[in-house]
TrEMBL record, chains A, B:
SUPFAM superfamilies: DmpA/ArgJ-like
Entry-linked InterPro entries: Arg_biosynth_ArgJ (IPR002813), ArgJ-like_dom_sf (IPR016117), ArgJ_beta_C (IPR042195)
CDD domains according to UniProt: OAT
Taxonomic source organism: Virgisporangium aurantiacum
Domain of life: Bacteria
Protein name: Arginine biosynthesis bifunctional protein ArgJ
Length: 383, 383
């Protein structure tokens, strides 16, 4: 159930001293072939970490032999020196593996604005490369955790091939993408162009619709490595289904582990004029601090939902919006519906359905509540 | 120092039983002329409360004799019945004053989605009209408070004329406009078109640049009533300066009373390519929950500021951004500058300066931190 579930991948996580806690903080995922097709999707933030700038170039060639990841530092806003650190990490890994540095992707996560302790990192990489095993996915997933309370792994068994994956992310979760690192692996046979198509579609429908706190990261990276070791060449549709299922599973794990959260909120926008409208409305509601604090307080405050919908450009008639919370039609035609006391918000899962009555498109955005623990945790992060 | 500081205005606030606390909850501001020129600026939220829909039509004619305001209920998302309630309030007031209902603006604030208790409200309006006095501004300002901890009043003495005003607002503070009601009065002589021009410019530079929690209200209303009682006809520029000064003062009062806030944060964006770029960047930073929680924790986490800047479309080179916090150049050229321990964040005022090095435009956005008290207060609002 990890990145090493598909055939032909090895991984490891080691403690290199980057984290003050002494926990695992450097990971590698190695592709043993026979194919090395790969693709990546990166943050749309214009302030991009050095490893994002580097790995974007790597996947441009469509071939990845190894991924090196570290927690304990984002290597973002570190200037030319920070970029050289990433480059040196790739060179170091490539030399050990006897491959080209341009086939080594690098991912970092942690505090923005500080240089990485390079000697410790490179020593850790050497150790991780030595330890990499075909059942090493679990330790790799542990090594990329920051404020995550648990590692996040997945494996989807498909028709003759497997998709595995790991993710880290617990805050700065917002589209384009969430603050997260994800490495997906598959032993399916697929060329780099197909891998790219499949990964983009999967991200669009899963990670891009997770918006925990509206904050976009400088380091987001999702990589998919396909080595063909199963000998099975699925159709694009079949591969896309398995990869999307893996991403959906990891996205749900990210959501349920979001910093300080007490609710997993799914905002389903239905009968929108366009899918873009549905996404815009869902995202506006997901980003309203007043909506999020209300849910933290178990308060089905639908007025705040309508207020958030009203900030969008989506097609709707304000007097024609229905909102249901956990199945209770609390707002009908833009005004009060069922009594708010009939909504049960005691559980962690909250389902909000917004019917815009403006068409037949739909989308679901996933978010969390805004809790006292979120504020507490994020007001003391770098200190 | 209130709405009744300019000549020719009367006001009052009374307790009509709309607030559970028994406090003042209905206010009137009456214009005794000789002129009745007026203008209004309203929320850009597409979900608009009944009193906004009504008052927007009233000011379209440029003549306002009276403003009726209530706390204890927003009369938003209340459908056709809610609009009739607003209409009835205006009719009731107009009948008592012997004027047309189309000259009576109405403002409401409080919980969204519930009907107002009309008998109590109309009884309160009658009482407020009877009590309205030339020194009644203070009680009117008190009657429009919701979660405000104190009333907000202002008076600016200009060259032969005066601008007075009152505001309420403590949450849902975001552009277009803040969640607030503002009534400004002046005894200057100015036609309705000039009043409109002056008010829009003042709002653009003050209330529209206050973004406490990124949440936009359904009820925002800013009204300016000019009665010419001073006999002085200032130039448009002179009147604009006084009105903007009054708005600036009220905006600062709104910011300093924002729900649960412990910091007043001014984000000055300098050397932007355009003023729109400066506003976009300032607003993105002001809306980042991670920036806001960091300031609550007295943490000068400039990486989160850069991460927020990176989400905008403004012109800048990521490696060319400087950020100073309370005068300390903590980020230089997109990377670490002065040591973060040298930034003193112990006070309430925080000055963030972002130099984009992309032009010569500038704008300042004002916001607050995101505190435990904000979450606490907003998770228990309607219950």
């Amino acid at each position: 159930m990890t990145t090493t579930s598909p055939k032909g991948f090895r991984a490891a996580g080691v403690a290199a001293g980057l984290k003050a806690s002494g926990g695992l903080d450097v990971a590698v995922v190695l592709n043993d072939g026979p194919r090395y097709d790969a693709a990546g999707v990166f943050t749309s933030n214009r302030v991009q970490a050095a490893p994002v700038l580097w790995s974007r170039e790597v996947v441009r060639h469509g071939q990845v032999r190894a991924v090196v990841l570290n927690s304990g530092g984002a290597n973002a806003c570190t200037g030319a020196a920070g970029f050289q650190d990433t480059h040196a990490t790739a060179e170091h890994t490539a030399a050990a593996l006897g491959v080209g540095a341009a086939e080594v992707a690098v991912c970092s996560t942690g505090l923005i604005g500080e240089r990485l302790p390079m000697p410790a990192l490179l020593t850790g990489v050497t150790e991780a490369l030595e330890k990499a095993e075909t059942d090493g996915g679990a330790s790799a997933a542990e090594a990329i955790m920051t404020t995550d309370s648990r590692p996040k792994n997945v494996a989807i068994a498909a028709n003759g091939f497997t998709v595995g994956g790991m993710a880290k992310g617990a805050g700065m979760l917002a589209p384009g993408l969430a603050t997260m690192l994800v490495v997906l692996t598959t032993d399916a046979v697929a060329d780099a162009s197909t891998v790219d198509t499949v990964l983009r579609e999967a991200c669009r429908l899963t990670f891009d619709r997770l918006d925990s706190d509206g904050c976009m990261s400088t380091n987001d990276t999702v990589l998919l490595l396909a080595n063909g070791a199963s000998g099975v060449a699925p159709s694009t549709k079949e591969l896309a289904a398995a990869v999307t299922a893996a991403c959906e599973d990891l996205a749900a794990q990210l959501q349920s582990d979001a910093e300080g959260s007490t609710k997993d909120i799914a905002i389903a926008v239905t009968n929108a004029a366009t899918e873009a409208d549905a996404v815009e409305v869902g995202r506006a509601v997901a980003r309203s601090n007043l909506v999020k604090t209300a849910f933290f307080g178990n308060d089905p405050n639908w007025g705040r939902i309508l207020s958030a919908i009203g900030t969008t450009r989506a097609a709707f008639d304000p007097d024609g919006i229905d909102v249901a919370i956990n199945g209770v039609p609390i707002c009908v035609g833009g005004a009060a519906g069922a009594d708010r006391s009939t909504v049960d918000l005691s559980g962690r899962a909250v389902d909000v359905t917004i019917d815009l009555h403006a068409g037949d498109a739909a989308a679901t955005i996933r978010t969390n509540d805004l809790s006292l623990a979120y504020v507490h945790e994020n007001s003391a992060y770098s200190t």
